[in-house]
Amino acid sequence: MTNTIGVVDLNDDDRQALAQRLVDQARAEGVDLVGPDGVLTGLTKQVLETALEEELTEHLGYEHSDRHAKPAPVDGGGNERNGTRSKTVLTQIGPVTIDVPRDRDGTFDPKIVRKRQRRLDGVDQLVLSLSARGLTTGEIAAHFAEVYGASVSKDTISRITEKVAAEMSEWQHRPLDRVYPVIFIDALGVKVRDGQVTNKPFYIVIGVTTAGERDILGIWAGDGGEGAKFWLNVLTEIKNRGVEDVCIAVCDGLKGLPEAITTTWELAAVQTCVVHLIRNTFRYAARQHWDAMAKDLRPVYTAVNAEQAAARFEDFDATWEPVCPAAIRMWRNAWSEFVPFLDYDVEIRKVICTTNAIESLNARYRRAVRARGHFPNDAAALKCLYLVTRSLDPTGRGRARWVMRWKAPLNAFAITFEGRITPSTT
Hints:
By secondary structure, the chain is α/β, with parallel strands linked by helices. Helices cover about 50% and strands about 15% of the residues. It has a six-stranded mixed β-sheet, with helices on both faces. A two-stranded antiparallel ribbon has the order 1-2.
């Protein structure tokens, strides 16, 4: 294969045939696909060296074999090729040693493998991906040593992950939509060492856009003593990023939060989180009862109105009070905060109660923080949570979105909150 770069010009069938020939050749000659002497290592070396040669040709203005096309010297001088130098770069398949071409004047500045660059960009993305899964710097270093046979120091890994600090700040302060039909405010417990290891709350705000997308608006570290002032600061920050109106804010008994919501957006309705009520119900019951309880509880929060919900709850009470009285007491204590939910159209209720995206997100966050055990400070914990958020977005910009069935809810919101919802045209 004389010009490996030409692979990109092949159609899918030709690429597949080429790949199959490489695999067959490797098997026939007893050569590994990966590893220091593997086929992929050799192919990567050839691709990088060919690309560097093409860059140098463009820089000098003539082909390596066509010296007659060499530009005439200016002021008695003239730039030309000046051999190569050996360099080892870390790639996603392990270390690869390449010969980097040089020019006599030293003005050649390659872009494929930059001067003093020791890692290809894909390696940085791999490190960030592993960090988003909760691996420590030591575990990531051990992974590279075991899988790729490459030595990557913990300091190098830390520097790679620190690169996202500026990106995270930009994400946390990015402009938001003018109006959100619904925002969810949820808390996640993360162990942070502050003198001693404590379980610290980190708050995630998720908004439902007028296009029916769920978007993570931001992540904030709490200190365990949050009140109205803390929440007013958080919500004012969100408002200053462009959010002029929120129709429904869904939260779960956080101190000072309802007052801060209505202070920030006067027309916002504060709704206790039905998802949390349902989730907390199962905390008081043995695992073997969960399916039956869920079936009996569903008629309560899907009732047509408050009267029917109360009747269905009496049936639930009669069945489950002897088994888990604490769950029944919890529902009775929260009843006045739950009832306003029943005033909404069924389509709006579905938006508020649809938990798939939120629960999936929380599961990813919890998996990452559990893998780490605890964090040395808030900044390290926030970075880990942001990396998880970032990994959910294929564009790598932290815009993790989940699209839902939206036309019917949009109509319900437009009628219920008349004049406040402007559908997105994108």
